[in-house]
Amino acid sequence: MALTLHKCSTGDFTLVQNRFLDEYMIAANGEFVKVYLYLLRCSCADRDVSLASIADAFNYTENDVKRALVYWEKLHLLRLAYSEDGTMTDIILLDGGSAKAAEKSRLDDYAAHMAKESRTAETPSGRISISADRKKELAQQEDIRQLIYIAEQYLGKKLSSTEVTNILYFYDELHFSADLVEYLIEYCVSKGKRSISYIRAVALEWAARRITTVAEAKKDTNLYRKEFYSVLNAFGIKDRGPAQAESEYMTRWFSQLGFSTEIVLEACRRTINRTHTPSFQYADKILQGWHDAGVKHLRDIPEADRPAVSRTADRIPSRRAASANKFNNFPQREYDYEQLEQQLLAAGEDRRDID
Fold it and tell me: How far apart are CA 126 and CA 110, in angstroms?
């Protein structure tokens, strides 16, 4: 007997493509299906996700979640991006019917969003284009030919006409040096971003901030490096990037004091335990104390935590325990007992001779 499926009332809902239900769901592992549907739900609600949060939602291990994500990536339903050290940083949901088009659309949207966030000056406007004559003129320059070659090595492919045009635009219109354009591409690739749309957005952002040298770019991107976000996460700050004052504290900890991430995170943990609030000033006092105590590794911290009086006492040479008798408080004479024995024997011989 056929069953009639009645549609529930409309309201808050998550869209699932029929193609997923018809072609992908039936053959997939049930756990993998749950992970994919959960990602759809989170994307609709703009929820923050992580491997840990997905694993907790289903009582899976993080490796279970990774296997599910890799499975769907192979089927071109999503794309994964990784940082330079291999850490997963992005999950991009793709349209199963047109994965490449969807990926390009999402990256373009993201790039547009980045360009819109310029805070210090207006972003250079106008359609990105270079005249044919200007392209020919630039192509004669040795540094431009070298730049195009380097870009192809970073991106791992021969550049399209659009990509070449963008690179020439960075050089000719944004007035980036060849070195700065090279670092721009290197920086984006290190974040797992190879789309020219993303690279263009970062270039426009740098131009808006009046960044003109590689040193300035490195200083700017340094504010958002992995170590900084590790500290923010340790303090429970997950909905924003570091403020200027926070960046200055963290730059001091990592660059000036030279501490490893593990030591800084331990200071953050102690700060939360003692103050119950993310206090960068309190953590700075802890780290300064450790620096003064010569801490270089995590194993040095227990010694640095000991009271200064105790550490000083350990450095004083130990003395022979004195007797409780007050007599020992006076300077003690030292005797040659062998000489005394010879004198006593000689005295005995003299006494016998007298007798």
Answer: 19
**Residue 279 pLDDT more than 50?**
yes
CB 231 within 8 A of CB 247: no
Q: In the numeric block, which tokens belong to residue 294?
A: 């010569």
* Contact criterion met (CB below 8 Å) for 257 and 291: yes
Same domain, 140 and 180: yes
Q: Which two tokens stand for residue 355?
A: 């007798």
- The per-residue pLDDT for 243 is 73
State pTM to two decimals.
0.34
CA 99 to chain centre: 29
193 in a structural domain: yes
- For 79, the enclosing helix (H) or strand (E) is strand 78-82
Which residue, 331, 104, 83, 31, is CA-closest to 225?
83
CA dist., res. 202 & res. 117, Å (int):
11
Expressed as residue numbers, the domain containing 67 is: 18-97
| pLDDT-derived band at 185, boundaries 50, 70, 90 | very high
Give the chain's domain count.
3
Do the beta carbons of residue 38 and residue 56 sit within 8 Å?
no
Q: Residues 260, 208: one domain?
A: no
Which residues are CB-neighbours of 306 under 8 A, at least 6 positions away? none
Contact 211, 217 (CB under 8 A): yes
Distance between CA atoms of residues 294 and 345, nearest Å: 62
